[in-house]
Amino acid sequence: SQVIARTTAFAGRIDVRWTGVKGRNMYELEMCSTDPSIEANWSRVLLSSKNRHIAENLVSGTNYYFRVKAMGAAGVSPASDVAVAKAA
């Protein structure tokens, strides 16, 4: 899955979208606002069958990193590449 994170015109909000994966049941969206290379910094934002999410109540001027895992009959996929956006 390819993830795209975009700064929006609204303070503290980032629009996150990702490409769909055939055969998936759910997507797990994860986010962090510190070093994305450290696994412990990541936390789950949501589980969803949709391939978009608006992250809200974020700290303005802070970079946020996002990644997605697809979940289906074959199990959980590896994490996607990381997308980054700065909250307005």
Low-confidence segments, given as residue ranges, are: none
Provide the gyration radius in Å.
13 Å
Major sheet attributes: 5 strands, antiparallel
First and last CA, distance: 25 Å
Describe the structure in your own words.
- It is a single chain.
- With 88 residues, the protein is mainly beta.
- It is built from no helices and eight strands.
- Strands 3, 4, 6, 7 and 8 form a five-stranded antiparallel β-sheet that branches. Strands 1-2-5 form a three-stranded antiparallel β-sheet, with no helix packed on it.
- Strand 6 and strand 7 form a beta hairpin.
What are the SSEs and their pairings?
Layout: E1 3-7, E2 14-18, E3 24-32, E4 43-48, E5 52-55, E6 63-72, E7 75-76, E8 83-86
Antiparallel strand pairs: 1-2, 2-5, 3-4, 3-6, 6-7, 6-8
Question: What are the defining features of this structure?
Answer:
three-stranded antiparallel β-sheet; five-stranded antiparallel β-sheet; 88 residues
Quick rundown:
About 0% of the residues lie in helices and about 50% in strands.
